[in-house]
Design goal:
By secondary structure, the protein is of the alpha+beta class. Helices cover 52% and strands 16% of the residues. The longest helix has 49 residues.
Length: 408
Amino acid sequence: MLIMTSDNLPIIRKSNDLIDARYKLSVAEQRLILLLLSKISPSDKDFKDYEIRVADLAEMFNLELNGYLYEQLQNTAENLVGQRIRLRENKIVEVMAWFSYIRYEEGTGVVKLRFDKSLKPYLLQLKSHFTQYHLNHPVDFKSQYSIRLYELLKMDVFKAKNGQFERVFEIKELRLIFGIEKNEYPLFSNLRDRVIEPAMREVSKTDLNIIEVKYGKTGRKVTSITFVVMIRSVIPTQALEKPDNHPVIDSLIALGFSPEVAKAAKTKHGIKRLERNIAYTLMKEKAGIAKDVPAYLKSAITEDWGAAWEAEQAKKATAEKQKTAAKLEVKATTEKATQDKKARYQKAFNDFLLLPENQQEELKQVFFEQSDLTISAKIKAAQSKGIDIFTSPLVASPFKVFLVERGF
């Protein structure tokens, strides 16, 4: 029997220390743990032997109920007995297991599990420094790092001001929490593309919307990441059953509109008008002008303040695009002229090499006589060492110019 909240949704409770712990679990392993956690009551004083049916797993996480899922449940449960959690506080390190006991009968699709007793302080009788959330938020996560990121951000919801908060992680710290080895994703670009951004996209579909990410650098190396998170309004159970809201409606709700008003605004004004006025209002809020965001946004939509701003932004973007195109054209023209010049000089030198030796020597002599003191010194130094003088750019370059000027 799943433990439900008053709005009939399973709830998860975890100590913040456990959320901050170092461990790495697959998506299947995390789903099984979450399903078990939803069975713990806030009043439980000890762990029970929790029974999980494959049908429960399929129903909660929208999975296809088949033979493969039966086998996966058994394998996942068995793997978790060997999985470890590492907690560290100053110089004290604790290493513990998720489960101390599992039992299953092959083919039945039923697994009995028992949390290890060392987890009691982190899962039972939680009075302070814990985080709770509805299980419906992470049910559709596909990335193994999404649940971890969601929980880490959820910890800091209490710090929110005007529905928004930030959490900063050192990259080294985030890798440790996620259980990412040093040889995994050694380049930050790989870590960002394969771990951070997929998790961000999934988390942003929940009650937490990551609206901005800021990367901190030490020199040229990215060493920290800041997530700027906006808390969405609580979504009614009916809406969760039919998640067909347009993103613009979700944005309006996140900015203080009720679902009914948001839907009515979409019907009356259309998506484009809403999108440009949301962007306009957020810009004004950042500038410190929009103090009461819902009221300001309502007026902006009604009067369509964002229209002129959007046109001005489009004008600036077009001008910037044209400016960039002009710069690229000048650069391309300059580069082509440089290449043409080099090719012309090289052709002159190649034609020089085709001349009879006596004519080459005559031209060299004329060049030597016309050269300045620096080039003359280079020529004499090379000749005294028996080195081809034209291997030096200081001599070869002016000689090619000399040849071009003489019509080669």
